[in-house]
């Protein structure tokens, strides 16, 4: 922090490889004093950075992207060891995507921050004489942003917060997830080498909630950007509200994939592949995953049979083996949590068609086998709560109205999907879904769309130019013409 390393008074804590259960390394055990030092460093550096020519901010961010692309391959082993991500995820979707985000916001630093407003004739009042009044809306930096990130994509998630925040002239204090903070710490020297002034990027790690809570409560922090569970997000929202801090909260999801009765041919294949991606894509540890398959009665048996074969054929094991498609969950606690949900589904009358038992191989690691659960009803816990594991539940519906009711029946609303041979029908149905994002015949993302959720899936939006909006305040300036 502040351009250098600080020795933590609380020592260090172990970071464990979820595949081998062996020590990866040790991370600093930060405390309130460390958070305070980081916030003070950020506060001292932010004003000068905000006054820096946007072209210079852009140059620094572009250089960060170049260094990430250059050094990324060397960081993959560390990233894999602390996250348990497979080669495909770690090598293809972690560091390259982080570089893309810094590159995107290198351009973003140059986007216009002023919206001119047409002059308006205003009558005289007790406040001021009348006249033709001009105005503009100007985006200003928020100040110091506390970035609290999730464990599933530590570097990507951090880049998605840090890059737009820096582009807008803010300073950041980052609190990575306790399970895998080491790669986030490695970013510090890289950003410094790229020319980022000292004090603008600060990282405080810790094994418990203390540093994050101190960051949210600190009076020197102007905004909290958090990605993680809805339960923690609610706590942050309440605590941040006491200081009227701005918040950007990207929380949990319970994605529904609605497969309509006309989903045949290529659309059918897209639907099957998209739902099946839940198992192999970081072992289901992704908030946008289509973990609920809502399938029309006429296609139900066909889809269950196809997905059962797919799940049974997936290879589970050491994520450093390029042939492995399903790696471990992040921790023993998360594995136990997912197993409890599966057991609960059985108790409530669902059928665990594939998986559901703890794998006997590998002998170490926090693995959950790809699991397919059928005979699920909307009231069951596994149909309503986010599991964050390689589990797909299947629900059936008779018509579009019932599909919409089931899709909207959870407290979440982050990402849903509609698969139909009639894209006009799918568009109309998407408008009825209480979800911040809807994919039609794809689970692919568009990088410029506003990303965030309805209901308990969050507050605010980032992504593309919307990310610049999220990390800025609007200031209105008025003058007589």
Q: What's the CATH architecture of the largest domain?
A: 3-Layer(aba) Sandwich
Count of alpha/pi helices: 15
Whole-angstrom Rg? 24 Å
Helical content, roughly? Answer: 25-40%
Poorly predicted runs are none
Q: Can you tell me the overall shape?
A: globular
* The CATH C-level class name of the largest domain: Alpha Beta
- Beta content comes to 15-25%
Q: Count all strands and give the number.
A: 18
Pairing-aware structural class of the strands and helices? alpha/beta
CATH superfamily annotation of the largest domain = Aldehyde Dehydrogenase, Chain A, domain 1
CATH topology of the largest domain: Aldehyde Dehydrogenase, Chain A, domain 1
- Overall mean pLDDT stands at 96
Largest sheet, spatial ordering of strands: 12-13-14-11-10-15-16
**N-end to C-end Cα span:** 47 Å
Oligomeric description of these chains: single chain
Question: What summary fits the major beta sheet?
Answer: 7 strands, mixed
**Count of all domains:** 2
In words, what does this structure look like?
The protein is an alpha/beta fold and 481 residues long. It has 2 domains: 12-251 and 456-480, 3-Layer(aba) Sandwich (Aldehyde Dehydrogenase, Chain A, domain 1); 256-451, Aldehyde Dehydrogenase, Chain A, domain 2 (3-Layer(aba) Sandwich). Helices cover 40% and strands 20% of the residues. It has 15 helices and 18 strands. It has helices at 32-51, 54-83, 87-93, 95-108, 154-167, 182-193, 210-217, 230-242, 266-280, 300-313, 332-347, 381-384, 400-407, 423-430, 464-470, and strands at residues 12-16, 23-28, 114-122, 131-141, 144-148, 171-175, 201-203, 223-227, 246-250, 256-259, 292-296, 351-354, 371-374, 391-397, 415-419, 437-440, 458-459, 472-480. The strands form 4 sheets. It has a 7-stranded mixed sheet with strand order 12-13-14-11-10-15-16, with helices on both faces. The chain has a 6-stranded mixed sheet with strand order 7-6-5-8-9-17, sandwiched between helices.
């Amino acid at each position: 922090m502040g351009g250098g390393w600080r020795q933590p008074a609380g020592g260090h804590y172990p970071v464990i490889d979820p595949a081998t259960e062996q020590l990866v390394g040790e991370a600093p055990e930060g405390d309130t004093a460390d958070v305070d030092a980081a916030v003070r460093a950020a506060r001292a550096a932010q004003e000068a950075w905000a006054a820096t020519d946007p072209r210079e901010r852009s140059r620094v961010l572009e250089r960060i992207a170049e260094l990430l692309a250059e050094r990324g391959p060397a960081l993959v082993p560390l990233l894999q060891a602390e996250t348990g991500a497979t080669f495909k995820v770690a090598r293809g979707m972690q560091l390259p995507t982080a570089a893309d985000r810094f590159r995107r916001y290198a351009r973003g630093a140059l986007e216009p921050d002023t919206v001119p407003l047409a002059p308006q004739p205003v009558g005289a009042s007790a406040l001021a004489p009348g006249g033709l009044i001009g105005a503009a809306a100007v985006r200003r930096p928020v100040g110091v942003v506390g970035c609290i990130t999730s464990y599933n994509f530590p570097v990507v998630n951090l880049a998605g917060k840090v890059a737009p925040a820096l582009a807008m002239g803010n300073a950041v204090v980052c609190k990575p997830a306790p399970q895998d903070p080491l790669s986030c710490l490695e970013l510090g020297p890289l950003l410094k080498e790229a020319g980022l002034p000292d004090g603008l990027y600060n990282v405080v790690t810790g094994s418990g909630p203390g540093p994050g809570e101190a960051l949210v409560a600190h009076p020197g922090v102007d905004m909290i950007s958090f990605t993680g569970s809805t339960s923690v997000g609610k706590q942050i929202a309440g605590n941040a509200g006491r200081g009227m801090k701005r918040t950007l909260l990207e929380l949990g999801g319970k994605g529904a994939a609605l497969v309509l009765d006309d989903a045949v041919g290529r659309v059918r294949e897209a639907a099957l592949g998209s739902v099946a991606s839940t198992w192999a894509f970081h072992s289901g540890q992704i908030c946008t995953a289509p973990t609920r398959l809502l399938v029309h009665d006429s296609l139900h048996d066909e889809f269950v049979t196809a997905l059962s074969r797919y799940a049974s054929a997936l290879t589970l094991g050491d994520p450093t083996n390029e042939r492995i498609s399903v790696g471990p969950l992040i921790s023993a606690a998360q594995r136990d949590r997912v197993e409890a949900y599966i057991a609960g589904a059985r108790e409530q009358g669902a059928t665990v068609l594939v998986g559901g038992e703890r794998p006997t191989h590998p002998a170490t690691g926090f693995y959950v086998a790809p699991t397919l659960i059928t005979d699920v009803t909307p009231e069951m816990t596994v149909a309503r709560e986010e599991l964050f594991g390689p589990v797909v539940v299947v629900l059936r519906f008779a018509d579009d109205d019932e599909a919409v009711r089931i899709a909207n029946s959870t407290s979440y609303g982050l990402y849903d999907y509609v698969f139909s041979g009639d894209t006009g029908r799918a568009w109309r149905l998407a408008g009825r879904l209480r979800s911040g994002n809807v994919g039609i015949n794809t689970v692919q993302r568009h990088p410029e769309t506003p990303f965030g959720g309805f209901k308990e899936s969050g507050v605010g939006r980032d992504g593309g130019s919307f990310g610049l909006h999220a990390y800025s305040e609007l200031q209105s300036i008025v003058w007589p013409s």
